[in-house]
Write a structure and sequence with these properties.
Blueprint lengths: L1 E2 H11 L12 E4 L5 E2 L1 E5 L4 H10 L3 E4 L16 H11 L3 E4 L2 H5 L4 H8 L3 E11 L5 E14 L1 H11 L6 E3 L6 E6 L8 H6 L4 E4 L4 H9 L3 E4 L2 H5 L2 H15 L5 E4 L11
Parallel strand pairs: 4-5, 4-13, 5-6, 10-11, 11-12
Antiparallel strand pairs: 1-3, 2-6, 7-8, 8-10, 9-12
Helix pairs in contact: 1-10
């Protein structure tokens, strides 16, 4: 058994809360630090299916990437999806902890996992956020190099095959070969101009809109939209592995289980 506080302490080392953006809401969102559990579920979203999985598995802690609560709540209505989910968590003594933009930024977090999955090497900072107390620079995204240049169509196919998605959308800015790639997991279209200024041949992110694509072409930058889910879900298994290893290093005992059943909300026909 481990306490929720012991997991919070581990997560603070893996993804310091100080890295999180001001608008974000990471941390313990439901439950008590004193809550104990012999099993932990790691997921991208705290969905009804994930809550049911935690109940069935006897888990009393869910560690998610996306916070299930973003804004102040003035009431808790159990006839709403969120209110019903929170009531079910409380009923079964299940705590919820989230690491969001701090896990995007942290070394070994969402963007490093994404970069490794799609074949980038020699990673450097992209969208610098600041420096930590040790003077180390930290950034929201990453930029790296492919071993060999390739066409945007070939790289898009490589990304599709590497990620948990059945499709990607790509924007071609001409015959420019792709070798230097910038990326930002989730929803990062706002950084298209920064990727172009950095000299990237292509930019990988999710949630790209029509006029974002138009702007990228004007800047001579290829763009691949692999979806919010596709660019972030790979961190779930990685975080499960790192949590399990950290528990072992500390002589603590708890099973850590990854959600493997969740799927993208979007389908293509």
């Amino acid at each position: 058994m481990v306490s929720v506080q012991e997991i919070i302490d581990i997560m603070e080392e893996l993804a310091p809360r100080s890295y999180a953006e001001d608008w974000d809401n990471p941390g313990l969102l439901v439950g008590s630090p004193a809550q104990e559990t012999a099993r932990i579920v790691v997921c991208l979203d705290v969905s009804d299916a994930v809550v049911q999985m935690a109940i069935e598995q006897g888990a009393h802690l869910i560690v998610s990437h996306h916070p299930m609560i973003f804004h102040a709540m003035k009431h808790l209505r159990t006839d709403t999806p969120l209110g019903s989910r929170i009531a079910e968590l409380v009923k079964h003594d299940i705590a919820v902890f989230a690491a969001h933009t701090n896990l995007d930024i942290a070394q070994g977090g969402v963007n490093d996992v994404l970069a490794q999955a799609v074949g980038l090497e020699g990673l450097a900072h992209f969208v610098v956020q600041g420096q930590d107390e040790a003077g180390e620079t930290y950034s929201l995204g990453r930029v790296g190099e492919l071993q060999e240049p390739m066409t945007i169509a070939a790289f898009a196919a490589q990304v599709r095959d590497a990620l948990p998605t059945a499709y990607v959308r790509y924007v071609s800015a001409g015959a420019r070969p792709v070798q230097r790639v910038a990326l930002c997991s989730g929803s990062g279209a706002e950084f298209i101009a920064q990727a172009a200024r950095l000299g990237a041949d292509a930019y990988l992110t999710g949630d790209v809109r029509y006029h974002d694509a138009q702007h990228a072409v004007e800047l001579g930058l290829h763009v691949i939209d692999a979806g919010h889910f596709g660019t972030e879900f790979p961190v779930v298994e990685c975080l499960r592995t790192r949590l399990a290893a950290a528990l072992t290093e500390r002589g603590l005992t708890a099973d850590v289980i990854a959600d493997t059943q969740s799927e993208d909300f979007f389908h293509v026909i």
